[in-house]
From TrEMBL:
UniProt domain Methyltransferase type: residue ranges: 58-167
Name the record gives this protein: Methyltransferase type 11 domain-containing protein
Pfam family, any one: Methyltransf_11
Organism: Apiospora aurea
Upper taxonomic lineage: Eukaryota, Fungi, Dikarya, Ascomycota, Pezizomycotina
Alphabetized SUPFAM superfamilies for the sequence: S-adenosyl-L-methionine-dependent methyltransferases
Keyword list, A-Z: Methyltransferase, Transferase
Family as reported in the entry's similarity comment: Belongs to the methyltransferase superfamily.
Tree of life domain: Eukaryota
Key word Nucleotide-binding present: no
InterPro entries, per the entry: Lys/N-term_MeTrsfase_sf, Methyltransf_11, SAM-dependent_MTases_sf
């Protein structure tokens, strides 16, 4: 993807146009789907969080994942946060059991602090970080640093004490941690990054961070 396009991915207008102009109907998967994530979920998430845990999927877009976690994972309290009205209109009718929230996940004044047990990010973080160098920390553009850290701070705020922030990403651990473990947060690692795909320059990993607090895992 050219930088001229990927640099627009932090704006709602870009995603509205993209979803409205897509030829294939939703849902459309970005990144790994539920089938590829199921082993990780069964081993590292489902045993720790009951069916009524409050889960947010930030930047849910047209992903199948929230629907599959609802219908196959049994979770009954899932909110999809998305700033594109176009994709909300497309996705909301597909599963009435999901809640949808139109919001910029970098700033969610309508969401009370400590609202969620789990934030599950699949590709939202990467939309903020999709352009610019990914291998040299000193070359990360300022807009990536600002957007990703605002996002991390807001997810920290909306999580309950003990809540989990799960990020599915192709970026290296040092890059993810450099951007997410920032001022205004005190993330703890629940486990080391878990490989979800074959080794290589596009290897996908699951990062699981915890907001300190009372929840026992």
């Amino acid at each position: 993807m050219a930088n001229s396009e990927s640099a627009k991915m932090n704006k709602a207008e870009y995603w509205d146009e993209r979803y409205q102009s897509a030829d294939d109907p939703p849902p459309r998967e970005w990144h790994l789907g539920y089938d590829q994530l199921e082993d990780y979920l069964k081993a590292h998430v489902y045993p720790h969080w009951p069916a009524d845990a409050s889960i947010m999927h930030p930047g849910a877009g047209s992903s199948h994942l929230p629907m599959e976690m609802h219908n196959r994972g049994g979770y009954t309290n899932i909110t999809c946060a998305e700033f594109s009205p176009a994709v909300i209109a497309q996705m909301q009718p597909l599963d009435p059991g999901l809640k949808w929230l139109q919001s910029d996940v970098r700033d969610m004044p309508g969401v009370a602090s400590g609202s969620y047990d789990v934030v599950f990010d699949k590709a939202c973080f990467e939309a903020f970080c999709a352009w610019g160098p990914k291998h040299l920390l000193k070359e990360i553009p300022d807009v990536i640093v600002s957007d990703s850290r605002r996002y991390s701070q807001e997810m920290y705020r909306v999580l309950k004490p003990g809540g989990w922030f799960i990020i599915i990403s192709v970026f290296e651990a040092r890059y993810v941690h450099h951007l997410v473990k920032c001022e205004g947060t005190n993330w703890e690692d629940v486990h080391a990054p878990k490989a979800l795909s074959a080794d290589g320059w596009m290897q996908t990993r699951a990062f699981c961070l915890r907001k300190p607090g009372a929840q026992e895992t």
